[in-house]
Amino acid sequence: MLPVKKFALLTGLSLALTTGAPLLAPTVIMPAAYADQTETIGITPTDGVNQVYDADHLALEWGIRSSFNNYVGGSTHIFDGAKASGKSYLWPYLGTDKNEDGSVSINYGGTVNFMKYCTDPEDPQRGACQLDLTLSNPTIKTMPGTGKGMLSVVVHTIDYATKQWSGPERIDFAVVDFDAGRFNQGKTADAELGEVTSWRGVAGALTAAGNQAFSNFYAEHGFVNSLSFSYPGRDALEGTPDGYTVSTVADTTIDFNGAKKILQLKDGNLFVVTSDWGTTKGVVASPDLRTISEGFDVPFDSSNNVVVDTSSGDVIWIKDGTVYAAPVSSAGVGAARELASYPGTATAFASTPAGTYGILSLDGSDAKFTTVTSSGEATTVDLPKSTDVYVKYKLNGNYWDQVYGTTFGGSNIGMQGLNDGTFIFVYDHNLTYGDGEAKRGATPLHISPAKESVAERVSPIEAFEPAFETNNSIRSVVVDDNRIVMYNQYGTAYEKNNSRIVFGHYADGKFTLDAGPGPFGDIAQVAGVGFLEDGNAVIAAQENSTLYTVDPSTGTVVAKAALGDRMKDTAKHESNTVLVGKDASVYVLDTFVPPNSYDDLTGIKRLVVTKPGEQKDASVPVVTMGDTVEWDNPPAEPPADPKPPADPKPPVDKEPPTGGSSSATPGSIWEKLLGVVAIAGGLATIFGLISTVLKTFAPDLHTKVAAMIAAATKR
Fold first, then answer.
1. CA 651, 85, 196, 561 torsion-angle sign
2. Half-sphere exposure of residue 419, counting CA atoms within 13 Å on the CB side?
3. Which of 62, 105, 206, 337 is a plausible cystine mate for 210, CB 3.0–4.6 Å?
4. Rounded mean pLDDT of the chain?
5. Neighbours of 216 (CB within 10 A)
6. Which of 296, 250, 251, 290 is nearest to 273 (CA)?
7. How far, in Å, CA of 605 to CA of 411, rounded?
8. 655 in helix, strand or coil?
9. Based on the number of CB atoms within 10 Å of its own CB, is 8 exposed (0-12), middle (13-18) or buried (19 or more)?
C-alpha cells in the first residue's frame, strides 16, 4: 500500500464536449446603454435577499475561473448568501423551474464581486477601479435527456479596455454538457428535502458573452471552473455519453515546472517526475489515483531522461555520461547501479520495445550513438557529420544546423525506439543552405546504429519531408508499435496555424506519412499525446482545455472531452504529459495553485470511457453551504493589489504571439542577451566555454544557464 496523503479527489471532474451540441438559448451580448457606475449590485447586499444560509442548505460549488481568481487575489465583496470556501465559492440553492419547452432551470443565489486596480486599493470605490466585475444568481438550464445545458449569470462589469459599463443583465455565460458527468441520487438526512440529485465536476466552456464579461481576456470556448451542485428531486439530466471523460483528479506536492514525465511501472502504479532548476522530484500514485505518495527526490538530471524497463520494472536513466538502473516504490528511487557509460553529452535518450536503450550524444564536434542492453552491454558507434546527413540541401555547416540536437536542454521525448531496434530522432530547426539565405525545416532522422557504414547509420526520413518544409520547431515524438506522432507545443488563440502535428507509421523498414503537419481542428498548445488500442490517438491540448481523440490516418477529430480548469501552462518544456495506461485509462498531468502558496503544483487526471447508463456514481456527495473545499487555508497575507499596466493588457494567462516558431518566450535579461550572442555567431565556442567553466566550478549555475541558453536559442 502507498502512504495516503491528503489531496483533492474530485470524481467526474469533466465531461465529453461533442461537436455540434445544440445550445439551449442564443448567446446574449450584454447591452451597455443603461449600465453605469451608479449600480449598487456587488457593492451592497441586495434588499430583501437572505444573506446567510444554514450549513445543510443545498448549494452550487463554482469557483468561476481559477486563473482569474488567482491573479487578482480573490474577490472583493461577497453578498446575498454566497460564501468563499478555499479558492471556490458556494452559491445557495433557490429553486427549480420546469419550463414550457421541457427544459429545467436550477436556480442558485449569491453575488460575488471583483474590484481591482483601484485608485485606493485599501478602499475600492465603484468608478475608481479599472476592473469591476460582478457575477450574481447563477442558473443551470438543461433539457432532460439531452445532456446539454447552459450556465447563465447576472453580470455587471466595466470593460477593461474601453471603460464601458454593461449590465446588470442575465447572460448565457458558459455551455455545459452532462453527457459524461457523474451524479448521485438519494435521500438526505433532511426529511423535508426528500430525494436529492447531486452532480460533481460538470465542465463548462465560455460563450462569447461570457468572454466579454471578462473584457475578452480569454477566448470563446475557454474553460470556466467545473460545477458541482445539488438540487431536490430526480430530474434526469444525463444524455448518452460515449467516450473518454475525467473520472478522478488528484493533487500532488511536487512542483509543475521544467521537464515532466508520467510513466507506468511494472506493478501498475504511476511514476510522475518533474524538474525545475536542477531540483527533480517524483511521486508514485495508484492507478485509481486514490493513493499518492509524498514527494521525494530523484537522481535524474533536469531533462528527466528516464524510461521503465519492461522486464525488470526498474527505471533506467542517463546522467553525466553514465546509464543507471534502480527500482522505484512509493518510498522513492532505490539504490542505483551503473549499467554502462557513453561519451560526450547526451542530446537524446530512448528505449526500444525489445528492451535496449539508445543514447545520442555529442563528443566535442563528433556525434556518437551508444546502444545499451538491459544487462549493461554497451556499443558506441560514430555518426556521420551534419553536412553529410542532409546532402541534398548542401548545408553551410554552421552551428545552427544542430542536426543532432543541442547539449543545452531540450526535449526528453525527441527520440523514440522503433520495433526493429532502430530509432527516430526529431529535432526540427532551421537548416541553412550553402548560400546562407535559403532555409527549411529539419526532416526527422532514422538512426540505424547496427549499420556497418557510418554514412548509412543516419538518414533523413524522406517520407516525412512534406510535413517539415517550413521550420515549426517540432521537437517531440511518440511511438507505439508502428504508429508515430510528432508535434510542437505551441499555438494559441493568436497563432493557431503554428500548431503542428504529424502522423505516420513505420513497417517493414519503411516510413509512411499519414497526415500532417496540421493544424487539425482547433487543437493547439499540445501538452501530450498517447495511442489507444483501437489505433486512434488522444491529444491533450492546453488551448480549449480539451482531450481530443484523433484518427491518425486522416487527422480527423472523432471525439472531444473537456479537461476542466487546471490545464494552464501544461504545454511547456517539450514534455509528454499524457499516458495511456494498461487498463486503457488515460492519464493527463495538470497544474494547480493551492491557496496557501503561489507555486504551481502537479495534479493528475484520470480519464475513463463512460458508456450510457454508467453515469451514476455513489461516491458523489451532496453539495451544501457547509462544505469546505480542499485547500481551504487562505494566504496569511493576501497579495498586494497589482498596479495595472499603462496600456490595457490581459491580467491572466492570455499571451501575445511570439512571432517565432518556438514554444519558449525569453523573458529575462539573461535570455535576451544570450539570444543576441547566439545570433552574432561563434556559438559552439562561446557556449562550450561557458558550459565547461560553470560545470566545473558552479554546477548549479551551470544547470540554470544551460536552460536559459536553450530557451534563448530556440528559433
1. positive
2. 13
3. 206
4. 81
5. 16
6. 296
7. 23
8. coil
9. middle
Residues in the chain: 715
Beta strands in 241-392 (DSSP E): 243-255, 260-264, 270-276, 279-285, 296-297, 306-308, 315-319, 322-326, 328-329, 332-333, 337-341, 345-351, 357-363, 366-372, 378-382
Q: Which of 535, 701, 636, 612 lies closest to 242 in space, CA to CA?
A: 612
Using CA atoms of 657, 663, 664, 665 in order, give the dihedral in degrees to the nearest 10. Answer: 0
Determine the longest span between alpha carbons in the chain, in angstroms: 87
- φ, ψ of residue 214 to 5 degrees: the values are -90, 20
Which tens digits make up the pLDDT trace of 518-531? 888 889 899 999 99
Could you write out the DSSP letters of every residue in 149-195? Answer: EEEEEEEEEE-TTT--EEEEEEEEEEEEE-TT-EEEEEE-S-GGG-E
pLDDT over 90 (residue 201): no
Verify cis geometry, omega within 30 degrees of 0, for the bond prior to 519.
yes
First to last CA, the chain: 47
Contact between residue 184 and residue 198 where contact means Cβ atoms under 8 Å apart: yes
Helix (H) or strand (E) holding 12: none
CA distances (Å), origin 183, targets 103, 247, 267, 491: 18, 11, 31, 35
Question: What does each C-alpha distance from 192 to 91, 93, 470 come to in angstroms?
Answer: 20, 15, 67
* Contact criterion met (CB below 8 Å) for 489 and 663: yes
Count of Cβ atoms closer than 10 Å to residue 312 Cβ: 13
Q: How far is CA 32 from CA 29, 68, 169, 216, 488, in A?
A: 9, 23, 10, 15, 42
- 111-159 tens-digit pLDDT: 999 999 999 999 999 999 999 999 999 999 987 777 779 999 999 999 9
Contact 203, 177 (CB under 8 A): yes
Neighbouring CB atoms inside 10 A of 444's CB total: 27
For residue 198, what are the CA distances in angstroms to 95, 230, 250, 565, 623? 14, 4, 20, 20, 7
